[in-house]
Structures are given as structure tokens and as C-alpha cells.
Specification:
Elements (H helix, E strand, L loop, with lengths): L1 E4 L2 E8 L3 E6 L13 H4 L3 E6 L14 H14 L5 E6 L1 H10 L5 E7 L10 H13 L3 H8 L5 H5 L4 E7 L6 H10 L4 E5 L13 H12 L1 E5 L2 E5 L1
Parallel strand pairs: 3-4, 3-5, 5-6, 6-7, 7-8
Antiparallel strand pairs: 1-2, 2-4, 9-10
């Protein structure tokens, strides 16, 4: 299916029924990285697998994380998704942080291998990326070299129950991951031993189990007539 948001035509697939769950891939990928996770997730959730702009079957466009977060904000608004679980991997995690800071439609946020600034990636990764982009310039590589720039104020505005994930062998510096978890109010942190940046995500069932487990920890309670989210 296609939807036009923020002036761009994005491709997405919808599978299953239940609480809405958005799955967003990383840089240079598309929704198909979740092929092994989807059969488990669609049993419990209404899954929305989105191709970011300039990825997969979505329309080409200028690449900035803030603009891509606006795409996802508009996606939530246009489909009127509420009490949404947002899972983002790498660039998808960056977009998830920015989107969740703007809306309470996301009540559960799970991010893997996200960074706040370009220097959040390990030095060898940045050098390798810089050399690769020098030989073959690519807007997607340029994006990772020059962005994001997410401040603590942005993280502090996130009200969703949040789980921050990274592998013990991740390309993102552990200090960066720790800082994200420490700055988002009430966030939980899991460093997955033996995993790298995408080994538990790309064409893997492991991420489905982590999403299911964390979503079950968040429950709705009613207090004085108001529904509250308990993380």
C-alpha cells in the first residue's frame, strides 16, 4: 500500500490485528528485514512495516532525520494510530526517538542501535563510512556522517515507555546507548551479549521476542477515571 505524507509517497504493508506496531528499518534497507519477525508479531499486533523515504518502494526525497520523523508523525496522524508501539532499528531508531518526542500517539518505544550524533558511532565505523562515501558519494552515507543532532531536551520530552537495545558488539559506542537510556524518563536498557548492530534484528526472530516481551510489561490501568500507562 502507499500513503502520501509530508509531501512524499511512502510504501507500507499492514499485517495482523490488535494494538498497532510500527516497524522501521535502518539506513539502506527496507521493510523486508523483518521477514522472520513478522510471523510472530502479526499474531499479537496490527503490524505496519514502512519503507522510509528514498528506501524500498517509497518515493525518493531529501534525507534528513527531522524530516523523516515528520513523515512518521504524519503517518500516525493520517491513519489515526493510538497507543502505538514503535520499533526502530538504527536509522529507524533515530527516527523513533524524534517522532516519540513529538507525539503521545506512541505509548511504547523500542529502539535498537540508535545514536544521538554522528560521533555516537565508533571511530572505525565513521572512518570506514567516510572513505566509502569519498569513493562513491551517496546521500544515505552522507546522512549518517552529518546527522543526527538530538539533544537531551528532545529525549526528556519522550513520554512513552521506552526500551533501549544494543548489542555488546554494536557499532554504536556503549556510552551513547547508556546516555539515551539514562536521559529518557523511566527508560530501560538491555545490552545483548554477543550480538552486533543487526544480528538480532535483520532476518531474525529474536527482535520479535524482545518486542513481545517488553510490550507485555506495559499495561493500562485506570485511576480516577483516567487511563494511565504503567511501564
Amino acid at each position: 500500500m502507499f500513503i502520501t505524507v509530508n509531501g512524499y509517497r511512502l510504501y507500507y504493508e499492514k499485517h495482523g490485528e490488535g494494538r498497532p506496531l510500527i516497524l522501521l528499518h535502518g539506513n539502506g534497507e527496507d521493510h523486508t528485514i523483518f521477514d522472520r519477525a513478522l510471523p510472530l508479531l502479526e499474531r499479537s499486533f496490527c503490524c505496519y512495516l514502512v519503507d522510509s523515504r528514498s528506501h524500498g518502494q517509497s518515493e525518493e526525497g531529501e534525507l534528513h532525520y527531522e524530516s523523516m520523523a515528520t513523515d512518521m508523525f504524519c503517518f500516525l496522524e493520517m491513519l489515526d494510530l493510538r497507543d502505538t508501539i514503535f520499533y526502530g532499528y538504527s536509522d529507524g531508531g533515530i527516527i523513533g526517538l524524534l517522532t516519540a518526542s513529538r507525539t503521545e500517539r506512541i505509548s511504547t518505544l523500542i529502539v535498537s542501535g540508535a545514536n544521538l550524533t554522528p560521533s555516537g558511532a565508533k571511530l572505525w565505523v565513521r572512518l570506514q563510512l567516510w572513505a566509502s562515501n569519498l569513493c562513491e558519494p551517496d546521500p544515505k552515507k552522507e546522512l549518517m556522517l552529518t546527522e543526527p543532532w538530538i539533544t537531551d531536551d528532545v529525549l526528556a520530552r519522550i513520554k512513552a515507555c521506552t526500551l533501549v537495545l544494543a548489542g555488546s558488539r554494536d557499532v554504536i559506542r556503549e556510552e551513547e546507548t547508556l546516555h539515551i537510556a539514562e536521559t529518557i524518563p523511566g527508560a530501560e536498557l538491555q545490552i545483548l551479549e554477543g550480538e552486533d548492530h543487526g544480528s538480532y534484528i535483520v532476518h531474525s526472530e529474536k527482535i520479535a521476542k524482545l518486542i513481545i516481551e517488553y510490550s507485555r510489561q506495559t499495561s493500562d490501568v485506570v485511576q480516577n477515571g483516567e487511563k494511565l500507562k504503567v511501564c
